[in-house]
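Dear colleague,

Thank you for sharing your sequence with our group. We've completed the structure prediction you requested, and as agreed, I am returning the results in plain text so they can be pasted directly into your records. Please verify that the sequence below matches your submission; if there's any discrepancy, let me know and we will rerun it promptly.
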Amino acid sequence: MSRVVIVGKPNVGKSTLFNALVKKNKSLVLNIPGTTRDRVFEYGQIEDKEALFVDTGGFESEGEFSEKINEQILFAIDSSDVVVVVFDATTPVSAQDEAIFTYVLKSKKPFISVINKSDVKNREFLYDYYKFGEAIEISAAHRRNLSEVKEKLYDYIESEEKGEFDARVAIVGRSNVGKSSLLNAILNQKRSVVDSSVGTTTDSVDTPYEFEGRKYLLVDTAGIRRKSKTKKSLDKLASIFSVFAIDRADIAVFVLDAFEGVTSMDKQIGNLVAKKHKGVVIALNKWDLVADKQKFDRYVKAIKQQMPFLNFAEIIPTSAVELKNTKRVLKSISEIVDICSQRINTAKLNDDLNKIIKINAPFSKRGRELKLKYITQVDTNPPHFVIFTNRAEDIEENYKRYIRNSMYKLYEFKGCSIKITYRNTKNDEF
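Please find the predicted structure tokens below.
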């Protein structure tokens, strides 16, 4: 999915254009700590193509415009697939306009220049902006010439060809756990910049890769950081682009640091991956730094205790430095592709559901009878099951966990985050 980044000096109408393009006034859809006030990201669609739109207006720097153009705008441009440069017809060309446009040219990214507020009477500076070349005169507030902007963007936005790859694999984790090093070890080449300092990788990098006849798209992501360390705009952008990579992926290789153990940030990332129902393999990286390697079983037990929502994931000790178990990670990904694609026979599902209920029947609130009537599988990747009941709203969360865990025991869903939906039926159904 392409990323469309909107840049320009403050108060040129970037956010107004952003909202007009995504057809919403609510900008933020990705729930990352520290970004709610910035309201800068939204998925949008132009005809049959979907893209992630990024409004840099939420990340204005405080005080003077540091070194002509601040770091977060540079990062946003570098992370984009296409840039929309916004100028203001009511203000003179400034050093900020010059700096932003110069950097866009230097980045060699596809771009569209628009001159906003071109419908007002006081637009004496309109033609000054043609010094930057071809531009579209628009009014973001009144949607003037918006169709022309969309037409230009359509040519730059790539269609998501899901059939092109057997799976899209996001390599995720907090900063400095060795994600880029692990990717390089898998590829056996230096594809991402690796440094010992925290957060060296700032962008998501897509790399096509073939293994045992299957095609994968490997996505190395910037590290997701905890709230206290996402004060800088650059960190916020990096965190959100990581979540964007998870959204796009079918499978996540969740990298943990074996030497440091599971942290609170690891738990947050793992929970996010589980909630989005992605296939998961846990790479316990930096295993070469662990002194007593006979304690692997203890590591596995501790990880599953601390992150029970990822009980279904295989845990593999890896060492990017020693190229340890990189092929095993790839084999696990291949297995997950097959497992997440499987369908369970409806008759068997219902027989097994009856057995599960006999062992532990659902609790009835206020004396009202609670029945689980019927189960069917409605989708794969992830495996999605619908259980029909007379009182979906009365089913306790702990009982839902019991059903989920029972299904993992009955079926081979290693590495797959199964999805179970409870739906009410009328009295005469089933």
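Summary note from our side: Confidence is low (pLDDT under 50) at residues 26-39, 59-68, 191-204, 227-231.

Kind regards,
the structure core
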